[in-house]
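ok here's tRNA wybutosine-synthesizing protein 4:
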Amino acid sequence: VQSTGGSSAVSKCSAAARGYIQDRFLRLLAGRRRRRAPLIHRGYYIRARAVDHCVQDFLLKTQSLPRTQILSLGAGFDSLYFRLKDMGLLHRTVVYEVDFPNVACQKAALIKRVEELSALVGDTGGEGLGAITFSGEDYKLLGADLSELSELERALEEAGLDNEILTLFIAEVVLTYMENTRSDALIQWAAEHFPQACFLLYEQVQPEDPFGRVMQQHFSQLNSALHSLAQYPDCDAQQRRFLAKGWTECNVMDMNEFFTCCIPEDEQQRVQTLEPFDEYEEWHLKCSHYFVLAASKGMMEPSWTPLLPSVTVPRNAGPVGMAGSIPAAVCARLSGIPGLRRYGHRSVLIKPNVILTTGGFGEEDGQHCRMRNFHVLSKRAGYWKAVCVTQNIPDKRWGERLYHTVSYLSDSLALVVGGRTSPSSAGLGMLWLKFPETCNASDPDHIAVELVSLQPAAEAAALRWRHSVTETTFKGEQYLFVYGGRSALEPVLGDWYFLHTQELSYTVIAVEGPVPESRHSHSACSWEGGVLIAGGLGAAEQPLGSVFLLRELEHGFQWQTIETHPPLVPRYSHTAHVHEGKLLLVGGVWLHASSVPGITVIDLMTGLCLDYVINVEHLEWPLMLHNHSSVFLPHEKELLVIGGGGNCFSFGTHLNPEPVSLSLSNILISH
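and the structure:
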């Protein structure tokens, strides 16, 4: 548990070094320095921001009082006191910090050693008295075990904490490491012993969805299990907990809600542009698995308002109800086959029952890397099996790409459009994939794939990723409709191109109607000669719930909105298929919901929108349905999900270990 504090100090320090948070004291307190990934920076930014929001609001709202106190529980090497003191916010406030005795001693020694810290706090020489390891005018550092209430009370009394003064308690990922009976007792003790108080809590929620399971496993492996999750699995349960333990007012929000409601738009944009970033799914999932809570009691001032606003968006504004469940089964004979543990890849049916998977990031020879190898699955006698692939890649331009598209155009040709290597480099252009005619046998044992470079002229529109490319028909001619995505320069694109399939030349075709807002990570399907676009991530990194049809007219195309009811829950990073007038959306990431997306079926005639949960009881591992690929086999009404997963914040990378088959026959009954 103590080591988690050290590691979080290093992460906060790295975030400060990259400009996410302004805090010159972190580097003095963190000890070792290590550069973390952009996703970690964002995660620690939102954490620091949530705590600061509440603490500064508390100090602002209580500045008319003669004295206040802050008690930081399990403070570790946090810099809160030094930051507030430096900003001149502690005129009438004393800060008390408590942590394990050995942590408190280490921090005290560090403060004495570092001139910049000791000068700010001013040593009054009160240490050595009982639990006090460092004592200044307005700062007391105590060594005590939080789970032993009598020991904690004694230490605070020695240090001069006054129960009659308005006190703010802070517990930043601390209480969850204690047994629930002990953390509950601490919450209740604070409410009973302090007539006027506020309590700020930041920790984890949602333990049972796939991301939550990976998160729990990570902390268990560190021997620092998260105890509160079983009893208090969501924000509502945490709110009920505080109200039951003597607090009269309590507001709570997950970090997606906090980011949207409490961080001004210009600040959101500043953070989103600090460094190249392309891990939106994991960012939103991390934020839906952490919350900030502010409780209070005895606040008599008529001007007092809570430290956190109450959430205006209805919590769990996810599906109204589930229409049913769809069983998930692993494909027999495919377990342990290397090459399918990947994400950000593409899978395409290159002939009946033969699937080609290319690109992405995954596992090869026990290493995590961008995937160079292609992979082919072939179904025979009811079973999927892996087929040997020979790759002829004459140049480096394949580039081991992620988030590209592959359009299968004929028996021997597929077109690869866009994709990226690193999010800081420019997008990649177009390539042909060639298959020799001989691979048209019904059950190939071997497939050869050759890459053929294209003339650069066709590439202007292709330097993007997380876009879509869909086959359309206009006046009997075949076109590819390239739409949306993002690039190294533009975080979200809303433009489109018609690419004539035969000549690979761009053609200008008139499009009328309301233009959809820019998006990436959406889905796109061919339907009746036009294109169906659903969901995606919009300009402010907010998921979209709109569905559009690009419909062929005599002289061009027209955008039409498809109204869904109940409204489609906004999502992105899903896959989609059309079957007999129904649009199927598979997986993805959504916000404000306690469940994860399963399969949504939209009737394109009536707009009726039904959500189905995926039953994973027969899977022995968490099924992450984002950054996956899926192939629909209409005759069997079978949906094959390949790969998926991602980098789960600091909890490790999760890759779905094997393909999963979903039988849709029950929900796609032909009328």
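+1. The chain has two domains: 42-297, 323-663.
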